[in-house]
Specification:
single chain, mainly alpha, Four Helix Bundle (Hemerythrin (Met), subunit A), elongated
Amino acid sequence: MSEDKKRQFKERMEALHEKYCQQLPEKYQEIEDCWNEYQTDLSNPEFIETFYRLIHTFKGTAATFGFVTQADICFEIQKLLLDVKEDYSVLSENSVNKIQMQIDELKINISLPAQDIIN
């Protein structure tokens, strides 16, 4: 790959990274809104699937763009959801509390890189 193509690739990746950072608060809000909406009916398999997909997708894109902490938090949430999803069971109160703690931690860890880019 020529030096010019390498530079162009690096510039495109940096632009994608910056755009992703700017979208972090919105992506977090989507996760939080889904969690809040369905928290009253945690036995709903549609909820589990929707929330699991949001977390899974965010985990993958966060890892792709180098946000390891955010990806790790989502991995922990995903593990809790996967057990319920596979067993067709209901989230326990303990799991609900753990997920809420992870979501709270995710909010803190999402706002940091977004602030760095926006400011």
